Protein: Copper amine oxidase-like N-terminal domain-containing protein
Amino acid sequence: MTTKKVVITVGATTMAAGTATVTLDAPAYINAANYTMLPLRAITEAFGATVNWDDASKTVTIMGGQRIISMTIGSKTMYINGTPVAMNTAPEITSARTFVPVRDLANALGISNINWTETSNSYT
Structure:
């Protein structure tokens, strides 16, 4: 997977990915359980990963680098290379888009350096 700095602001319709500005089809938001939820496809594609959706099972599969990550809407368990991993909150569908919790997605993608900036409501 490509390594680059990504800046995502809650409520914004764009994000910074390296030196590029990427338009999001739906903005990040904070859900009822107080977790920041990211639009999955835009975020993972910014890191060079591929996303597949299975409508029958409501499961999204992310393929990037040496990782295959599967998440099912409403389930707090994701699978990384077939190994179950607990999530803080389940993926959701909002505005016909799949959203996942930022920290769970970062961990699944092997990103350990993630920071919340309260003054700008953004993750880096």
Q: What stands out?
A: The two ends are 17 Å apart (CA to CA). The mean pLDDT is 85. The domain at 6-118 is CATH 3.30.457.10 (Copper Amine Oxidase; Chain A, domain 1).
